[in-house]
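Attaching the record inline, Q. Sequence:
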Amino acid sequence: MDTTTVSDQPTDHLSPPPPQPLSKNAQKKLLKQQRFEAKKAEKKAAMKAERKLQGERKRKEWEEKLANVSEDEKLKMIEARKGMRKERMDQRTEDRVSKALRLSEAKNNGQNVVLDLQFSELMAPNEIHSLVKQIMYCYSVNGRSAVPCHLWLTGYEGEIQNQLQKMPGFDKWIIDKDTGPYINTFESQKENLVYLTADSENMLSELDPKKIYIIGGLVDRNRWKGITMKKAVDQGIQTAKLPIGNYLKMSSSQVLTVNQVMEILLKFLETKDWKESFFHVIPQRKRCEAEEQVAREEGEEGDEEDDQETKRQCIET
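Structure, as predicted:
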């Protein structure tokens, strides 16, 4: 790695390079992404309508059952239903307490992972909204993980802060937040900072519990290539990239969403197996599978179906 541009001084506000005009290939990718977003919105609306219809059908079926039984049977059915609801509520309470204990333990002894949110000025409002959703998914998957990490939000201010604070339950999240840059937050541990960027020449082989891994919170739509690498080099901190190429061939760029990187790290903490972590997280549409290798298709499309459950888990800290 070229270190000739390394500065020993903390860099709070970077001067980003001017955005390059999109090439024809990039324009095609952008158009494809826009079509995908439109299709996803239609799918979400259809799923919402279907859930509403299912709810109405279930209520009607329940009312019909009650109407066709005696008064004694009706009371028994109502009591049984109340008992089932109580069991579900008790289970949710138990899960919530267990999650809080695991996240609290991770704050003391877990792997430190930082989401760097200092790029909000480079993003359009819809991109900031997308990033906020990715942060929500990060917290949700961390809470479900068998080995959760200690999650940090740095550069937590402006529109990102406003949108996150509007989320129900956000004030109860078991994380650490700092409005300032991570370079100040971890000033005394600068030698342990590692920025995860696909542009790094250093391949990550293990996760060092002493290191503090940084994920760039940027939905860039290909406009800001290399910016996280430049930031790390300018600040004189280490960089590394996930060893994706060692285990699978990507059908497109190796740049992943924030929540995908987070989930890969969490899966590796649990399994100590990069191959399993990549195939568990990276959507099949973004990779070319090797012979006889089969993996579940997850990611943005799967996330849409789990959106309501994810929001519930974030609210129920």
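The beta strands are 112-116, 150-154, 176-178, 193-196, 212-216, 238-240, 249-250, 287-288. The radius of gyration is 23 Å.

More tomorrow.
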